[in-house]
Amino acid sequence: MPEIKLVNVGKSYGTINVCHDINLKIADREFVTLLGSSGCGKTTTLNMIGGLDEVTTGDILMDGRRVNDLEPIDRDVAMVFQNYALYPHMTVAQNIGFNLKLKGINAADIAARVSMVAASLDLSHLLERYPKQLSGGQQQRVAIGRAIVRQPKVFLFDEPFSNLDAALRNRMRGEVRELHNRLGVTSIFVTHDQEEALSISDRVALMNRGRIEQVGTPEEIYARPATRYVVSFIGSPQIELMQGTVEAADGGPSVRLGSVLVGLPEGKGRFRVGQKVEIGIRPEHVRLGKTGIPSTVRLVQSVGPSTQIILGWEGGTLIATVPGFVRLDPGSTVRVEIPPEHVLAFDQETGLRL
Amino acid sequence: MTSEGVTFSVPDAPLRSPSRRHGVTLVFLGPALTVLVLLLVYPVLSSIWLSLTNASLSAGRLETPFVWFDNYAALISDKAAHNALFNTLYFAVVEVVGVVVLGLLTALLLNHPMARWSGFRVLLLLPWAIAPVANAVLWKWIFHSNYGILNSLLVGSGVIEKNITWFGNSFVALNMVLLVDIWKSTPFIAILLLAALQNIPQSLYRAARIDGANGWQSFRYITLPLLKTAIAIAVILQTIWSLRTFDLIFILTKGGPADGTVVMNFLAYRVTFNFLEFGYGAAIANVIFMTSLMLAIIYVRLMKPGALT
Amino acid sequence: MKKAYGLLKQTGVVLSLVVFVLVAAAPIAWLLLSSVLQQQALISTPPDLSLSSFTLENYTAVFGSAAQLGRGIFNSLVISIATTALAILLGAPAAYALARLDIRHADTILLMVLAAQMFPAIVIAIPLFITASKLGLIDTKINLILIYLSFNLPVVIWVLRGFFTGLPTGLERAARMDGATIYQTFRLVILPISLPPLFAAAIFAFIEAWNEFFFALIMTRQAAQTVPLVISAFAGQYQTVFGQMMAAAAISVAPIIILTIILRNSILRGFADGMLKG
Q1: Which CATH number covers residue B223?
Q2: Domain final residue, candidates C40, C57, C74
Q3: Average pLDDT, chain A
Q4: A56 HSE (CA, 13 A, CB side)
Q5: 8 Å CB contact of B292 and C176
Q6: With contacts defined as CB-CB under 8 Å, which chain A residues touch C177?
Q7: What is the domain range of residue B287?
Q8: Please, are residues A187 and A31 in contact by the beta-carbon 8 Å criterion?
Q9: Residue B239: which of B303, B308, B295, B300 has the closest Cα?
């Protein structure tokens, strides 16, 4: 099983640059997700790894070998496409076995391998059906089956679940991760859904405008975002950022937002007095109580296990998530505490986390 | 054999490295391209060359004494050519107007909710599908002076007193030929315009109704503007095709009476295959070719992707 | 008041539809009708449509005549089928190449393909006639089979290219992932799902070949005469048996009508692929 390395990879179509400075190392058997909004270059990067798109600059190495000029089939990768891309004129069995047929494997072996894969995906009873007779979830499993049967070294997933409804999507996510665990094959997954990325990946590479913003475990990306872009993209609901100026830098650092002073996390030399920063705090860390900053309740939304409260205060908007059902009248005043150790601060100019 | 340059410029084009693609392109495109070059490019070039000669064919041998631009000079001063040119222009203009207007009316009619039956579209295809020769023969019969059904009906219902000799007068004959060709050509344009009509979302008409527009206003402010490109395309296409009329003239009038129905296309035929003046005929054919080519280029400009949607 | 106006509009539409049906169908109906009526019935004013006037003698006469209708039908069939097959064989891969394989001068080639469907035959007929004469191919079927490619091949390429450009690329990418070469992709994935437009293109090519007159006129003498030429012979100046004239025409027209009715969906679809996708 290979280790995959992207070294200074870039992609351009003529003068239009789509990706640049992509450096990524994917360990053997790792599940890595390329995350980002549309146009960020994640699918292009996936295609380059797979061999469907040519690399303009840089190298892609598999197990130390440069594979830039190799066809997908020669890289031993398999792909699950966004729109399944099942051959409409072939049965499920023929779809799954197609690549085996192209390799010249004899019919009996093909049938055996196909039925094994079909059984593992609960498709055995559908082998003679045509794609248009299947549901979305079944089609997706056929697409996965087609990839598995080749026993490739790497799985590539190109936003495979974006056409499925929410409930099905959740289930399929779990199935894909289970599959990965079971087969132990390196998987590279592309999605725009940050929740999806966080829930199933070993590591996430968040991409923005053709470059990688941050690579890290889901926990790292969530709790220790490298840039303002990362903290805004990751986390639901989206974090509210507020702008202010650093008032005190050492020994109890704080930032001034209007008439309020908010405490910043400790750390030598992290902040400079007068520095312009943007700060935010994850909703689950905001505490409502008797002490703290006065704010007005704007909207209260309960989803069952927790309640989301949108608050307005002098510095802007705050979102707080509290456990259980909480009733608060819109317009009423509550006090909110922003614990300094959970504050995420970013330099306004560079966007980097401080 | 030249190998076409193959460049990689289309995002997510599913194809391979340039070196592998050359061979494939050759195999896929080569044969067809060869045939097209032999059957189209070579004859056009050859025709240009021929037009610079006084070519004649005798006993399978081609004699081609060079006369440079004499044929074109002759073309400019030839009365028969002027006549043909005038007829062609008249024919083209009247046919285009007739076909596009009738085609639009037919398309509007068939777009009506009451006209959903597929049989109407089939009926529309019939005039298009039958052989131009058969069509010509049919109308020759219909227009027959003594026994044709048209005269029968007109005289029988009292519209006229005596049978009309439809192809007796030059100008009338030209218009009768026009009538028949319009009948045959309208279906294609109607289908084209119908498709464009059906691409206009119904919601626009509903919004217009709420805004208080009546039928005519809807047509004028919604339908027509959105059909502009389709109509332009129809005009160009029909102009190009009106240059092709041959079978009809050959069967109905053979160019007569008194050359009243000779168009450029027919003139070229007669000059080449009746008078055996290959060079002169080629010159006329070249003129027709240039005209068609220019119109085709205009057509291509109009047909940018999505032009009709 | 509004209701009366609505009713008036409805009546107008119905009337227009009736007129439309008559204008479109009546001439062709008259063609077929005339072919089975006796001469006497046809030349009387008004034509005598009583049952006793109907006959098949026109057809028997036409088949038995010196104009060799039987041979004409045979020639037309052979030529039309052969040229259609050739056009599809050469045109389908070419259309795919133009649609999917980035070809440098694709625009020029496509312009040529388009122009070929547009200009009148005379433009290329003279040199082709001379060449055919020199090669001794005048009055042969193979001559027409090849020459008809000059308009058949472009039509096939045009229609199929329109279709191929509209195909989503997912299938080809999946096939490439599966390890298929371009040949395999074309043969095993693209062609099987292209049957409807292939069929439509074939119908167009067949109809145009079956109906073709000009090249047949100048390139044949006796042996390779096609149906349109036979019809033309029956429409000569001295033809007075109108029923026979119509019978000859009907031989050409009737199969095409049946074909059009049965295959109307394919034909309309072919129009869409060819016409509406620049």
Answers
A1: 1.10.3720.10
A2: C57
A3: 89
A4: 18
A5: no
A6: 50, 52, 72-73, 77-79, 99
A7: 70-302
A8: yes
A9: B295
